[in-house]
């Protein structure tokens, strides 16, 4: 059903099709005209996050083969990178209320900087943060928890993903109330902290009794809740990658599951970023 | 006295020599194990080719066990052989997009998934796979095994008599594991490719009204 892939033509579609299949016939694998529409989409689709990184780094062509001189001529990197964006992003459209000149400019600046400085993503970078939006059962009720992970290199050549932190409204256990000043009085030590009982009975505002440096560790809380059976982990609903491996930039990559050439793992947002790793993680 | 000193010296030298030999032996043994547990880039390329074959083998078994025109014995055999390709405990995770846009996922042990596929309530089932598969580079895990992912596309059509009542196109991401296994017959260890968990995502579904 070839019409499927060509039904919603956008400005990038035709050049991409010509390029993918001219590339294929050039490499001597004559599958262009006979290929089913679905297979055409499958080739163009960025099927894995790994493939996204390979295309971003200009290491592989649409078929996963190493980029060669012919491909470089037909599809220079400045044409390849724009294809990694979600073309259906309404901010990129020239018309419409969601059109954003700022975003279009940011995108162009990002692409220009990547090309000019030949910037690459390190496949195993700690600056690739995966957000696994997960379904959990909290006290039997379905809730969403965002689990953030990145990769750790073990003994030089081995890799694993590790959990950095978790976020979700189930961890918003404290209420903010500025109408009352809550504290443990200065003389409490002399009464062997009788007031401690009073403070810890104030269950909604416990954070007010902690030191000014107190920062809740949600991951420990999450592990405890799982261990105690308060939370039951179900499954990952969706994964979004936050990439801060390109200096000065942050961009998001997520999977667009649609039957079009512009599908699979695509850039869904890009913005300037000057935050440190820990600050960035806090703001996610 | 001189003999005593010479004898002590000799014993001391022999001890040092033995200790050195032992250390060398340990070092060389470690080196051998390290050699054994690392795959060279050339080896990995060979395994990448073999992965394609394993995935094709799996696809062939799926086609056979889904095909109700095939003899029951052949379909049972396909189910059994397909299972042998998998790592113990491998699961199939299938995701569905619900009417409200939320995602529902179901996990099934591979045994149950294959058994279910064999007994679907259609009079006829046609399963096709695209000729192409995408296989990512292998990465070594902390357990010494090598990991990769193969992505394939499956077209499924379910019939009631001659009418198509259900079709879907699913993307399947298959975990690939290269692990060392012990060949008891030849009493040697060798690397072997296994299929692991599979994530299946529907890309297109059509349910025809009966």
In percent, how helical is the residue content of chain B? 40-55%
Instruction: Tell me the distance between the termini of chain A.
Output: 42 Å
Shape of chain A: elongated
Let me know the number of strands of chain B. 8
What is the CATH fold-level name of chain B? Nuclear Transport Factor 2, Chain: A
Q: Main beta sheet of chain A, described?
A: 6 strands, antiparallel
DSSP strand content of chain B: 35-45%
Low-pLDDT parts of chain A are 1-12, 21-35
Look at the structure and give the mean pLDDT of chain B. Answer: 82
Q: Please describe the biggest sheet of chain B, giving its number of strands, its sense, and whether it closes into a barrel.
A: 8 strands, mixed
The portion of residues assigned to helices of chain A is 25-40%
What is the average of the pLDDT values of chain A? Answer: 87
CATH class of chain B, anyone?
A: Alpha Beta
The span between the termini of chain B is: 109 Å
Number of strands of chain A: 6
Describe this structure in words.
The complex is a heterodimer of chains A (284) and B (210). With 284 residues, chain A is α+β, with helices and mostly antiparallel strands. Chain A has two domains: 161 residues, no CATH class; 73 residues, no CATH class. Chain A is 30% helix and 23% strand. Chain A has ten helices and six strands, in the order H-H-H-H-H-H-H-E-E-E-H-H-E-E-E-H. Chain A has a six-stranded antiparallel sheet. The longest helix of chain A is centred in the middle third of the chain and has 16 residues. Chain B has 210 residues and is an alpha+beta fold. Chain B has a single domain, classed as Nuclear Transport Factor 2, Chain: A. Chain B has four helices and eight strands; from the N terminus they run αααββαββββββ. In chain B, strands 1, 2, 3, 4, 5, 6, 7 and 8 form an eight-stranded mixed sheet that branches. In chain B, a hairpin with a 5-residue loop joins strand 1 and strand 2. In chain B, helix 2 packs antiparallel against helix 3 and helix 3 runs antiparallel to helix 4. Chain B is globular. Chain B starts with a helix and ends with a strand. About 11% of the residues of chain B have low confidence. The interface between A and B is medium-sized, with 27 and 29 residues.
């Amino acid at each position: 059903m070839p019409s499927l892939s060509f039904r919603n033509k956008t400005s990038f579609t035709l050049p991409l099709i010509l390029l993918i299949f001219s590339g294929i016939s050039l490499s001597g694998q004559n599958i262009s005209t006979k290929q089913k529409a679905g297979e055409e989409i499958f080739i163009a689709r960025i099927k894995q996050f790994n493939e996204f990184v390979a295309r971003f780094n200009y290491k592989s062509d649409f078929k996963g083969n190493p980029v060669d001189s012919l491909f470089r001529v037909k599809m220079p990197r400045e044409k390849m990178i724009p294809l990694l964006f979600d073309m259906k992003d309404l901010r990129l459209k020239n018309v419409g209320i969601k059109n954003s000149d700022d975003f279009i400019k940011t995108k162009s600046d990002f692409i220009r900087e990547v090309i000019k400085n030949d910037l690459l993503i390190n496949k195993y970078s700690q600056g690739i943060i995966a957000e696994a939006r997960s379904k959990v059962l909290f006290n039997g009720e379905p809730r969403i928890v965002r689990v953030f992970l990145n990769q750790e290199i073990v003994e030089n050549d081995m890799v694993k993903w590790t959990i950095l932190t978790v976020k979700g409204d189930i961890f918003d256990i404290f209420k903010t109330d500025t109408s009352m000043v809550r504290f443990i009085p200065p003389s409490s030590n002399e009464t062997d902290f009788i007031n401690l009982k009073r403070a810890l009975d104030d269950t909604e505002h416990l954070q007010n009794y902690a030191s000014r440096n107190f920062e809740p560790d949600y991951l420990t809380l999450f592990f405890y809740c799982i261990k105690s059976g308060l939370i039951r982990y179900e499954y990952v609903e969706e994964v979004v990658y936050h990439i801060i491996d390109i200096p000065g930039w942050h961009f998001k990559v997520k999977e667009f599951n649609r039957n079009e050439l512009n599908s699979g793992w695509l850039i869904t947002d890009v913005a300037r970023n000057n935050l440190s790793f820990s600050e960035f993680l806090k703001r996610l | 006295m001189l003999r005593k000193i010479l004898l002590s010296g000799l014993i001391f030298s022999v001890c040092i020599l033995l200790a050195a030999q032992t250390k060398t032996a340990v070092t060389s043994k470690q080196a051998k194990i390290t050699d054994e547990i690392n795959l060279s880039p050339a080896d990995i390329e060979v395994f990448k080719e073999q992965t394609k074959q394993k995935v094709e083998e799996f696809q062939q078994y799926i086609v056979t066990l889904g095909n109700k025109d095939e003899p029951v014995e052949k379909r049972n055999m396909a189910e059994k052989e397909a299972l042998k390709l998998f790592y113990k405990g491998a699961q199939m995770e299938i995701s569905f997009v619900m009417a409200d846009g939320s995602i529902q996922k179901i996990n099934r042990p591979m045994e149950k998934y294959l058994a279910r596929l064999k007994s679907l309530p259609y009079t006829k089932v046609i399963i096709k796979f695209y000729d192409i598969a995408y296989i990512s580079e292998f990465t070594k895990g902390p357990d010494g095994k090598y990991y990769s992912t193969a992505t394939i596309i499956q077209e499924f059509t379910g019939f009631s008599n001659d009418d198509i009542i259900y079709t879907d196109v699913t993307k399947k991401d298959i975990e690939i594991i290269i692990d060392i296994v012990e060949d008891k017959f030849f009493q040697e260890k060798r690397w072997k490719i296994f299929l692991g968990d599979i994530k299946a995502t529907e890309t297109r579904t059509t349910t025809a009204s009966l």
